[in-house]
Amino acid sequence: MMPSPRLATLLTAAALFAAPPTGADAAVINAQVTANVVKPLQFTARRDLDFGTILLSAGMTGPATVTLSQGGVRSCPASVTCTGAALPAIFNVQGTNKQVVRISAMASDLVNAADGRTLRFTPSAPTSITLTNSGAPGLDFNVGGSISVPANATDGLYSGTVEITVDNQ
User: Does residue 88 fall inside a structural domain?
Assistant: First the structure.
C-alpha cells in the first residue's frame, strides 16, 4: 500500500530537517583568557614633615615662601632665616610588584594653636610610583611642599595635616 501524497510530503520534509547539513564546515577558534590579580595597597606614614624654625626679619614687608623639596632641601628667601632640621614626610606603599600607584596630595592649612591664624601649605609629591616588589618592604616616597608666611604672621607653632591618597592605576 502506498502512503497518501500528503503523508509522503510530510515524511520527506521530516527527513530533510533531520539530516545533517552537508557542505558546511564548523569553524573553531580559541581566545586567550587572563586575569591580573592585584593585592590591596597597604599605606603607612613613616615620618612627619617638618619645616624647622622660620625667623622673620624686622624689615619684612611681604610674604615669604619657604619650600622643602621631596629630597629634603629647604629654601628660604632673604627676608627670613631658616634654622633647625627640615625633613620631608615619608610614606610607604606595599602592594603587587610592578603595579603603578597614583599619588595625590591635597593642600591644607596649618593653624597656630595660640590665635587660630593659618598658613597655607601646598604639598609636593610624586604623581605616581611603580612598586618594585610584592608586599614588604614596599616602596617609600617623600612629600615636601611650601608655605607662604606673611610679614604679620604671629609667633607660635603652626600645625596641620596633609591628605595623601594612593590608588592602583
Answer: yes
- CB-count burial class (<10 Å; 0-12, 13-18, 19+) for 153: buried
pLDDT value, residue 19: 56
Is 0.70 surpassed by the pTM of this model? yes
Question: Residues in the chain with pLDDT < 50?
Answer: none
29 domain-assigned: no
Instruction: Compute the Cα dihedral for 48, 140, 100, 43 and give only its sign.
Output: negative
Torsion sign over Cα 43, 118, 157, 83: positive
Rounded CA separation 9/164 (Å): 80
Residue 156 placed within a domain = yes
pLDDT at 55: 96
What residue type is assigned to position 103 of the chain? I
pLDDT value for 115: 96
